[in-house]
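Re: beginner question about structure tokens

> Can someone show what the tokenized structure looks like for a real chain? I only ever see the sequence side.

Sure, here's an example I had lying around. Input first:
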Amino acid sequence: MVNDSGVNNSGVRRFGPPEPGEIVVIKVGGSTLGEGDSTSPDIIELARRGFKPVVVHGGGAVISDWVKRLGIQPEFVRGLRRTDPETLNVAIAVLCGLVNAQLVVELNGLDGRAIGLSGISGGMLKARVLSEDLGLVGEVVEVDPATIHTALDAGMIPVIAPAATNIEATGNEDAILNINADTSAGHIARQLEAAQIIFQTDVSGILDVNRRLIPRMTKRQAGDLIAGGIAAGGMIPKIEACIMALETARTGHIVDGRVAGALLACVEGRDVGTRIV
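And the corresponding structure tokens:
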């Protein structure tokens, strides 16, 4: 475990970029993927260099588009989507089906060896209902990384959709819960003891009260931004997930995924976006 001074329990400093052979968890969202984006080529390059990328993806914009077609108005509470049964059906279909398959095809088209998974695969994520206000949104209570390790050991790139098995369900009804993709990435990175977690977003990083980029901060400072109301909306679960992952990871990063090469720059230790240690 690493404290705010960057020293683990053995007294050895663990800051610095990951090394080949280590796991890098990358959370991507629909807003940072598309024509001209470098995220997928960067992921393939990381695998070629001997790193072990694990991809967790969102797809909130696509979900919102589909629920609007059904006449449902998207609702968010502290950056998390409120999920009724009808919205859940759309979210699971979009995340575990459409978005996951498209990302796997894109990576494989670049000569990668990607495999599509979800938090349900092999009992990877187990959860309970987080709060009545959010509906069928889960709070992760258990992570089993065996399925991810199996894929990594086979030289594959796991591409994971955020969903979980509901441990409180008594049958097939409500047996699946929607999990925020940022939160899922944080739990997975911590359980895998990943060297690094990187959040690809559509902003330059974490901004201060004057909307200026904060290039580096500690876990404690990141938590203070949330407590002080400076970080808001969808940035809250990203920061919270970074703090969670840093129980085992060396660094967490929030970067602009629209910038070519941002992912590789993070792994190489160059200054880009916001680094949390």
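Each token stands for a local structural state, so reading them left to right follows the chain. DSSP finds eight helices and 14 strands in the chain.
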